[in-house]
């Protein structure tokens, strides 16, 4: 706790709640803070990665942008866990549908996160690590979704280091045959950092584009219309 503020976060110890929502887009963090939280205080503006703490139904909760890709998520989640004492980290992000079962704006909960990243090499493991969500948060999110009448799909997702791939759609076809639901760029690093530190992590995603049909949301829609995902995440930790 002695390294706060960090080079990436000007919050002080105590400014950030034990439960935090992590949208990749800092403007989505701003949207959540302004539309769902009360008594909001902005604690971070470094690098434009906005962070806020407020209250939701009387519960202290924070929300902060985490950026794009596993290196960015790795930095922010590590600092939140080790320097600010965060115990529950819930990614609320966008994803591209791989499975034919998914359509635009569907909500997906990442039970496991496949990856093409070498992020796990730092742990010097004697095999392949399987990044998974914390069951406590996963079970709670599914129950909250049922209570809210929101249909969710739970399963395996892909966290990729690559957005513009040299192979185009071919690599996604290979993940698709293994039942992978969708692709994004952060969850595997979040799950690994949480596992290493013994804290809880979960990714709740909204389908923003369908890779094989070319459908996609606008940037503004990504910031402001994924409210079902946000409301589930806000109610996961009681």
Question: What topology emerges from the helices and strands here?
Answer:
Elements: E1 19-22, H1 26-36, E2 38-44, E3 51-56, E4 59-64, H2 70-82, E5 88-97, E6 107-115, H3 135-148, E7 152-159, H4 170-176, E8 182-184, H5 187-197, E9 200-210, H6 219-224, H7 227-234
In CATH terms, what is the fold-level topology?
Rossmann fold
Shape field: globular
Q: What structural class should be given to the helix and strand makeup?
A: alpha/beta
Strand content: 25-35%
Largest sheet: 5 strands, mixed, barrel
CATH class: Alpha Beta
Order of helices and strands: EHEEEHEEHEHEHEHH
- Domain module tally: 1
Mean pLDDT: 95
Structure annotation, total helices? 7
Q: List low-pLDDT spans.
A: none
Please tally the β strands and state the result. Answer: 9
Per CATH, the superfamily is: Nucleoside phosphorylase domain
Query: Gap between N and C termini, in Å?
Result: 25 Å
Q: What is the gyration radius calculated from CA atoms?
A: 17 Å
Helix content: 25-40%
The neighbouring-strand order within the major sheet is: 5-8-7-6-9
CATH architecture annotation: 3-Layer(aba) Sandwich
